[in-house]
Specification:
Layout lengths: L9 E6 L7 H11 L3 E6 L9 H8 L17 H4 L6 E7 L1 H9 L5 H7 L5 E5 L3 H5 L1 H12 L3 E2 L3 E4 L5 E5 L3 H11 L9 E6 L4 E2 L5 E2 L6 H12 L3 E6 L11 E4 L3 H11 L5 E4 L6 E3 L18 E3 L3 H6 L6 E8 L3 H12 L3 E6 H4 L4 E2 L2 E4 L2 E4 L3 E2 H15 L11
Parallel strand pairs: 1-2, 1-3, 3-4, 4-5, 8-11, 8-13, 11-12, 13-16, 16-17
Antiparallel strand pairs: 6-7, 9-10, 14-15, 17-19, 18-21, 19-20
Length: about 400
C-alpha cells in the first residue's frame, strides 16, 4: 500500500472535457489505494469521455456533475464539498476551464468549487499542442501560476489528434506523485542535492561483468524525497530499470569510473551529497576485447580497487554535506562507523544487506558524532522522507549573502 503524504486524507478530483479523462480512472485508483478519500466532480464535457458510473465505482463515492443537485442538505454543496478537502486537483484541465479559472468564472459546480475553495488547487492541463502554445492560453496559465495555482505539466508526446508536442496530460502516476509532493514540508528548498543510486557494472569482456543485487530503490526514493522537499536534484544512476523520479535530473552511467566522472563533473555548488549507490569495490584490471571462451581450465581475473567516490568528494575543500550508506553482512554498526570515520563524513546510514538489497522496505541506523539513531522498518519511500527530515535538521544553514558596501 502506498502511504499518503502527511495530512492527505481527502481530495476533490475534477474532470473537464478531453480524451485524457480516461487517465483520471487510474488516478482515482492510486489515491484510493493510498487510503485517500476521493470526491469526483465532472463537467458536462467530461461526461462525454468517461461515465460518472465508472468514477463512482472506482472511488466508492457519489460522483457530482450538477451545480443545482450537488448533494448538500443545506443547498451549499458548491461550497461545502471543498471544506475539509486537502486539495482540489483538476485532471484533465482543458484550455476552456483554465480560462474560467484565470478569469474567476463560476458557472458550473467545478468552477464554483474552485472559486470558493479553502484549500490548494492543482491543475493538470491537457490539450492540443497549438492550444497549449496559444498566447491567450499561456497568459491564463501564467495568471494561475501567479495566483498560487500549481500547474502540473503538461508533458510532451503523441496526442489523440495525431500530432506530437506539448500539451499531453501527465500520466496518472506523475500527477499522484506531484500531489503527494505538494504536501511535503519544503525542508530542502533552495538546496542543490546530488544523489548516486543503483549498482555499477564492471566489464570483464563485451558480454560479462561484475555487479551486485542492488535494485536502486533506496537511492531513487531519496532522490524523490529530496525533490518533494524542494531541492534541485541530480541523480547519477547505475544500471536499473526504475523510472526517473519526477523533477529529478538523471544521469545514467555503467561503471564505477563513469559514476566518479559524472559526480565530479557535477559536485561543485552542491549543498548535499547522498552516496547511496552500491559501487563495486573492485574492477577488472583489463577488459578483454573479445568474449572470453569457456575452456576446461580455471580462469583467473586480476582485479584492482575502484576509486573511492565518497572519500574523494568528502576530501574536497568545497565539500558539500556528505552522507554515506553502509550495507554490511555482519558487525554492521562497527563497520559503518569505521567507514564514516575513515572517509571523514558527518553522517552514515547503515543496514544489513540481508534486510535491504532487492526489497521494497528497509531498516536502518544513523551514525554520527552523537552516536547511533535506529529507525524502524518501513517502506523505502517513507524511510527516504524520514531520512530527508533527519538530514535537513543536520545541514549547516546556508551562508548569509554579504551585505553590499
Amino acid at each position: 500500500m502506498i502511504t499518503p503524504a502527511p495530512s492527505l486524507t481527502r481530495i476533490v478530483l475534477g474532470l473537464t472535457g478531453g480524451i485524457a479523462a480516461y487517465k483520471a480512472c487510474e488516478l482515482v485508483r492510486l489515491f484510493v489505494k493510498a487510503g485517500v478519500r476521493v470526491d469526483v466532480v465532472m463537467t458536462a464535457g467530461a461526461c462525454r469521455f468517461v461515465t460518472p458510473m465508472t468514477l463512482q465505482a472506482l472511488s466508492g463515492r457519489p460522483v457530482l456533475t450538477d451545480l443545482w443537485t450537488s448533494g448538500a442538505d443545506n443547498g451549499m454543496g458548491h461550497i461545502d464539498l471543498s471544506r475539509g478537502a486537502d486539495a482540489i486537483v483538476i485532471a484533465p484541465a482543458s484550455a476552456d476551464f483554465l480560462a474560467k479559472l484565470a478569469q474567476g468564472h463560476a458557472d458550473d459546480l467545478l468552477s464554483t468549487l474552485c472559486a470558493a475553495r479553502a484549500c490548494p488547487l492543482l491543475v493538470a492541463p491537457a490539450m492540443n499542442r497549438q492550444m497549449w502554445g496559444n498566447a491567450a492560453n499561456q497568459r491564463n496559465v501564467a495568471r494561475l501560476a501567479a495566483d498560487g495555482v500549481a500547474i502540473l505539466g503538461p508533458g510532451s508526446g503523441d496526442q489523440a489528434c495525431g500530432e506530437t508536442g506539448d500539451g499531453r496530460m501527465l500520466e496518472a502516476e506523475e500527477i499522484f506523485a506531484a500531489v503527494i509532493a505538494s504536501r511535503q514540508p519544503r525542508l530542502l528548498a533552495g538546496r542543490r542535492v546530488l544523489v548516486t543510486a543503483g549498482p555499477t557494472f564492471e566489464r570483464i569482456d563485451p558480454v560479462r561483468g561484475i555487479t551486485n543485487s542492488s535494485s536502486g530503490r533506496m537511492g531513487y526514493a531519496l532522490a524523490q524525497a529530496a525533490v518533494e522537499a524542494g531541492a534541485a536534484v541530480t541523480l547519477v544512476s547505475g544500471p536499473t530499470a526504475l523510472p526517473t523520479p519526477p523533477g529529478a535530473v538523471r544521469v545514467d552511467v555503467e561503471s564505477a569510473a563513469e559514476m566518479h566522472a559524472a559526480v565530479m563533473a557535477r559536485i561543485a555548488g552542491a549543498d548535499l551529497f547522498l552516496a547511496v549507490a552500491a559501487v563495486a569495490d573492485y574492477t577488472p584490471a583489463r577488459v578483454a576485447e573479445r568474449k572470453i571462451k569457456k575452456s576446461g581450465a580455471p580462469l583467473a581475473i586480476e582485479l584492482e580497487p575502484t576509486i573511492d567516490i565518497l572519500g574523494t568528494v568528502a576530501a574536497r575543500a568545497d565539500a558539500p554535506y556528505c552522507v554515506g550508506f553502509a550495507a554490511e553482512s555482519h558487525d554492521v554498526l562497527q563497520h559503518a562507523d569505521d567507514k564514516r570515520r575513515r572517509k571523514g563524513i558527518p553522517l552514515i546510514i547503515a543496514n544489513r544487506v540481508q534486510d535491504a538489497l532487492g526489497r521494497v522496505d528497509n531498516e536502518v541506523t544513523l551514525l554520527d558524532d552523537a552516536g547511533t539513531h535506529p529507525l524502524p522498518r518501513m517502506d523505502k519511500l517513507d524511510l527516504a522522507r524520514r531520512l530527508v527530515a533527519e538530514i535537513a535538521a543536520r545541514l549547516p544553514r546556508p551562508a548569509s549573502p554579504r551585505s553590499r558596501p
